[in-house]
Amino acid sequence: MRLSTYFLPTLKETPAEAQIASHRLMLRAGMVRQSASGIYTWLPLGLRVLKNIERIVREEQNAAGAQELLMPTIQSADLWRESGRYDAYGKEMLRITDRHEREMLYGPTNEELITQIFRDNVRSYREMPKILYQIQWKFRDEVRPRFGVMRGREFLMKDCYSFAMDYEGAKKAYEVMFNAYLKTFKRMGLTAIPMAADSGAIGGSLSHEFHILAETGESGVFYDVAYDELAAKDEIDLETLSKLYAVTDEKHDSSAANCPPAERLKEARGIEVGHIFYLGTKYSKAMNAVVPGPGGETVLAEMGCYGIGVSRLMGAIIEAYHDDRGIKWPEAVAPFKVGLINLKAGDATCDKTCEDIYRSLSENGVEVLYDDRDDRAGVKFADMDLIGLPWQLVAGPKGLAVGVVELKNRLSGEKVELSVEAALARLTA
Amino acid sequence: MRLSTYFLPTLKETPAEAQIASHRLMLRAGMVRQSASGIYTWLPLGLRVLKNIERIVREEQNAAGAQELLMPTIQSADLWRESGRYDAYGKEMLRITDRHEREMLYGPTNEELITQIFRDNVRSYREMPKILYQIQWKFRDEVRPRFGVMRGREFLMKDCYSFAMDYEGAKKAYEVMFNAYLKTFKRMGLTAIPMAADSGAIGGSLSHEFHILAETGESGVFYDVAYDELAAKDEIDLETLSKLYAVTDEKHDSSAANCPPAERLKEARGIEVGHIFYLGTKYSKAMNAVVPGPGGETVLAEMGCYGIGVSRLMGAIIEAYHDDRGIKWPEAVAPFKVGLINLKAGDATCDKTCEDIYRSLSENGVEVLYDDRDDRAGVKFADMDLIGLPWQLVAGPKGLAVGVVELKNRLSGEKVELSVEAALARLTA
């Protein structure tokens, strides 16, 4: 993509309304624009990151054996009356009346709808278990939307639901999702700490929140240093995990039986990006979601639900990866891998070298944003640091005269001068 | 994917509520389920097709130089008051009041919002022209939703908007999109006839509807036989096109100057799947979307808008490709390329051969749905014909005893017996 034609409205000034780093940087880097309170448009650069996050979430859900479907955003109020939540949910639910005066709502979550789909379509224990998920927009009418996409009203969420014939089956699905979550966040370059949580309004008794660590995180967290060792592993069994201490600050209790001694207790800040629940038969019972068992007996489905805040993750990643100059994207979610800076657009050698690099990288499947604008070097460096692509490749007349370009790693700040060939080899490796 | 675990609730009976083939078949093939009037859940098989259609639309939009962004589904009523459409739109607009009594709406289209984004973020003629699009859910509160996803209330649409400095620029964008549409539909195996259309409620004076041909199409169309010759081409210039006759039956006039003689006039049935408009300055004027020109003068953006009904296309494709037994997917949009039928699950030879085929195809990037169920051959054949995968590969004890499997093409009905190796070679070619 050429920056001269790309729709990337970066801002020099910090927008007054943005209180936290990720909100400021997403506005400044031209990734989002607010269109109404807590409601955002995703501009091209922001959408690319959102799609990368979504892709990683999807791949790990599929790998865990979950099957993707897609539910509508607008639901019938009657369905929520079956579970008793239509009246219980309160003002966060966006309630709508259609032209025929039917009561509808914009789904804040989908337990009722997925339970209906399961109930109407799964006819035998032979089709069990089932793990179904979607990545879809939700709406929660927050009384005070803030922090950009971190606490918006319209947001993208991955919600997954498991259905099993018994508690053992439900527990197995819970474990599979638990480990899928660890892998998902790890692939994005994040350290996620799973914390035993109260299960809140959704119900159930076994529940974990996943907080990712960031210095500017919203909540204080305390956890056993053993987590840092576990984080290196790909699988954690729940037996091990259930013994470890990890809580948000309001639940911290140094006298708790499993609270480690001070030298093994770490204090940090975290951002909640996922939440998993064992639901039991709360919804299947209320909505009569039953499956005939092998002996013809009627079995209530044992359910679990598993959420990841996909759009929220973008804010969380930026909170974990930024400096004063801008964002530092982990490569797995970066909107482009390489930012190519032409220091003197219009100079024949600079133009030709940059065009060759641009074509060569593109042909090798490397995503490049080429700053071909006729603008000052300072502007180009500032914009490239702001939008935070993992690699910056800088070509200018002085360097090219002696056969070199500069390659900078945005995360480490490391710079090297090397030949074009060597730079291409490193970026396509 | 193994059918024994796949969430694919096919139906033997034809649902009473479905009046047209695509609606019947999407329900019977387990692709969608209605959750409220005109509102559908996309089950895994249906979602796979929807994503394929979406991908082709996206690729052709990108190839045409359009840049993808994503607008929210919920918009502010005040924005629509700027264009005067909030009051004009009528009951098809789903109107919503949030918890703070602010008037909102579920976007039925996005001219106002994109014009606002353009107005707030494009600051110079040097950034022009811009073509921006999204693929996002829309809601139109149809008084009588029917025909399944063909006329639903919540639907997926690609909407694109062009902004230029003058009429010539707007016309150029229109032509680029026109040809992108022809390519898009052609890639899906469809014949699209562009018809000069009245521009209706959206406004403007240059406008084409794209109808794809299907015997069960909703509207009668009359067109010059020259279209069939043009359909083979990749690009059509508008000069040529504007002289050709193509209209829906209500506008047909055999005395029109460009109406061809009877022997060159074709009558067919079509389904509208796309619509493009030149908007002029209708919205930029109402919303003050101006760009400073080279001399500092204030220029109103010249706009165009370009829609494709993505979810509707699925119904349209099925209307064009089905028979009494089920769907016949064109390969480009098929949910899987190959349906592998194990005629005797449990038989050691059949199981081993099928597992080998399944692994080999999957490793070669061929998407396979493997019917590994312990069920009767008749059930398997009927389900596979119903869901309409382009290729059926059938392995049974009799054939394997003499070293052959059967390969059937769903579209042509052609069947051949061949060795496993030959079948794999053909499917991975």
UniProtKB/TrEMBL annotation, chains A, B:
- InterPro entries membership: aa-tRNA-synt_IIb, aa-tRNA-synth_II, aa-tRNA-synth_II/BPL/LPL, Anticodon-bd, Anticodon-bd_dom_sf, Pro-tRNA-ligase_IIa, Pro-tRNA-synth_IIa_bac-type, Pro-tRNA_synthetase
Reading the lineage from the top rank, the first entry is Bacteria
User: Where in or outside the cell is it found?
Assistant: Cytoplasm
Keyword Flavoprotein listed? no
What the entry lists under Pfam families is as follows: HGTP_anticodon, tRNA-synt_2b
Look up the record and report any one GO term of the cellular component aspect: cytosol
Give the main EC class: ligase
> Reaction catalysed?
tRNA(Pro) + L-proline + ATP = L-prolyl-tRNA(Pro) + AMP + diphosphate
Domain Aminoacyl-transfer RNA synthetases class-II family profile, which positions?
A: 33-330
Q: What is its EC number?
A: 6.1.1.15
Mind telling me which CDD domains this protein's record contains? ProRS_anticodon_short (cd00861), ProRS_core_prok (cd00779)
Which family, according to the similarity comment? Belongs to the class-II aminoacyl-tRNA synthetase family. ProS type 2 subfamily.
Q: Which PANTHER family match?
A: MITOCHONDRIAL RIBOSOME PROTEIN L39/PROLYL-TRNA LIGASE FAMILY MEMBER, PROLINE--TRNA LIGASE
This chain belongs to which protein, by name? Proline--tRNA ligase
Q: What is the lineage of its organism?
A: Bacteria, Pseudomonadati, Pseudomonadota, Alphaproteobacteria, Rhodospirillales
**Name of the gene encoding the protein in the UniProt record:** proS
